[in-house]
Amino acid sequence: MTQLRPEEGPPGPGRRLTAEFYERDAVTVARALVGAWLEVDGAGGIIVETEAYAPDDAASHSYGGVTPRNSAMFGPAGHAYVYRSYGLHWCFNVVTEPGSAVLVRALMPLVGIEAMYARRGVEDERKLCSGPGRLTQALAIDGGHDRRPLDQPPFLLAEGLSAPSVVSGPRVGITRDVDRTWRFGLRGTRFVSRAFR
DNA sequence: GCCTCGATTTTCT
DNA sequence: GAAAATCGAGGCC
């Protein structure tokens, strides 16, 4: 069981992630991002939940080619793809190989927590970043971050936990290609959007 | 705790 | 016109 008490967690980010990290298939990067550090303008923590989306994947926005919304998925790896979900929420993705991306679904809050509470308007720590829409609201990510490089401010993506225990399961909220178990999570944390089983 | 519902953008039929 | 990579509120148990 991965230890998740804040006092035992990483004090901060390790080495910044580079192009070689992102220029791989989405499933590999999605698994590798669990336990990584994500920070946006001083607010962030450890990524605890991701999902992979690939070009030949009917559940992916990139399935069927380039549109104005998904064009970031066909741009350089290591940049952001931010889109609006259900007309209300923003969702933050990391672009990997062409037409591929990793949806970041949940985060363990560690720094800038006061700013997150203020942006979210909730009092429950578990509701700060446990879900793609909640995470973007807590970190103040919106459409203006679409296509921006992740190796420059306001973003900081870096190594986090040294050897995270990663579990997987089916992706959330999709109806096509439902059998691909491309949702990944950190074992034992309460900060995921829903339990793995 | 579970279920239903509505808000609202983008895409596809 | 319908569905979608969602969330939060309100009703019920």
TrEMBL record:
One GO molecular-function entry: alkylbase DNA N-glycosylase activity
UniProt cross-references to Pfam families, sorted A to Z: Pur_DNA_glyco
Source organism superkingdom: Bacteria
Stored InterPro entries: Formyl_transferase-like_C_sf, MPG, MPG_sf
Keyword match Hydrolase: yes
GO biological process, one term: base-excision repair
EC supergroup of this enzyme: hydrolase
Keywords: DNA damage, DNA repair, Glycosidase, Hydrolase
EC number: 3.2.2.-
Family, as annotated: Belongs to the DNA glycosylase MPG family.
Protein name: Putative 3-methyladenine DNA glycosylase
Organism lineage string: Bacteria, Pseudomonadati, Pseudomonadota, Alphaproteobacteria, Hyphomicrobiales
